[in-house]
Amino acid sequence: MxxxxxxxxxxxxxxxxxxxxxxxxxxxxxxxxxxxxxxxFELRRALEVGNRERAEQIIKELQDSKDFKPxxxxxxxxxxxxDHTRTLxxxxxxxxxxxxxxxxxxxxxxELYRKGHKEQALKELEKVDSKSFNYTSASVLKAxxxxxxxxxxxxxxxxxxxxxxxxxxxxxxxxxxLILVGGE
Length: 184
Description:
- There is one protein chain.
- This protein is 79% helix and 0% strand.
- By secondary structure, the chain is mostly helical.
- Helix 2 packs antiparallel against helix 3, helix 4 runs antiparallel to helix 5 (98-114) and helix 7 (135-148) packs antiparallel against helix 8 (152-165).
- The chain is elongated, with a radius of gyration of 25 Å.
């Protein structure tokens, strides 16, 4: 009989210990999320009022956090007058969401193109999957780079594909305009 009471007491004790640990972990996690939420608010505010020094300090603090590193990197891209190539590459590498990877891969490719690295930009744009939500915009960027490189026939084929994929959209209209401009 005593053995059953000890067994039940041990089981109840273990359950209470696990419940207490879960409650403590939940409290800790919520507190951390709240702190980082406030940090993000503070960061946005610093950017709005032009306090670049404070914004950089907060970004650095957020980058040290594993969970908020992509957020910090995306905010650092908003800082004007900087070369964001390395930051965008780091951001692409740190993201897990396929749509965000696709979006920032396109943005990274644009930054490479802007810096004159056209071949590397085209290579990055190849990584944007045809099922990605931003495939058409990445294709238009690819065509623009190809046109800039003098490869107008290849660019036109891409633009014609874009205009077929999403009729009567912004990208269709842009593709058609680029085809006209490229024909001159």
